[in-house]
User: Which sequence fits this backbone?
């Protein structure tokens, strides 16, 4: 069984996220969207953790906790870490240079095609789907203005 501290933390997170849901429910949709999108899944995950802590007793000697992989050679782990860091820094650079509306679909396409080695049709379909959700949510629904990237600001 999980420790009492873990159960207490899960119940505390449930309480805070439930309060956020109740408080944001009366707000206008634009203001409530972010708190509801975060607090709803957070409440569900904390409830699952609490139930697991109460009813999910681990067999003796088994540890159910996050643990770094020890099966990979050190060089492979370092290479994978550097690749992940390069994608993160590349996304940041694309946001700064191009702006969010161009960086998001570009990163999705490049990641799926280059890192995931997916086919052209699947890469294009996933990129268009992500772009449609991004554009539909942030531009059409929420009317959030995004700053132009440095390249586009320079060209003006």
Assistant:
């Amino acid at each position: 069984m999980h420790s009492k501290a873990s159960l207490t933390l899960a119940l505390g997170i449930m309480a805070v996220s439930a309060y956020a849901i109740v408080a944001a429910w009366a707000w206008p949709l634009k203001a409530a969207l972010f708190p509801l999108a975060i607090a709803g899944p957070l409440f569900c995950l904390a409830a699952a953790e609490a139930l697991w802590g109460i009813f999910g007793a681990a067999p003796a000697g088994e540890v159910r906790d996050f643990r770094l992989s020890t099966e990979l050679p050190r060089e492979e782990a370092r290479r994978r870490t550097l690749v992940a860091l390069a994608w993160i820094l590349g996304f940041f650079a694309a946001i700064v240079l191009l702006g969010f509306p161009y960086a998001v679909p570009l990163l999705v396409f490049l990641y799926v095609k280059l890192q995931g080695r997916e086919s052209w049709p699947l890469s294009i379909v996933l990129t268009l789907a992500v772009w449609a959700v991004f554009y539909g949510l942030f531009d059409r629904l929420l009317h959030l203005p995004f700053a132009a990237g440095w390249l586009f600001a320079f060209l003006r």
